[in-house]
Amino acid sequence: MARKILSSGQHSNALPHINLQRATLPWERLPGQADENKSWLALLLFRESDFANGEERPRVRTLTLRELLAMPAATARVPSLTPEPGQQESNEAVVIDVQRRLLEPLVPTLAELEFLAHAHVRKSTSGVPEGEAEATLISKRLPDPGGRNDMYLVSLEGRYRNEAFDFMARGRPSGFAS
Question: Domain range spanning residue 7?
Answer without folding.
Answer: 2-171
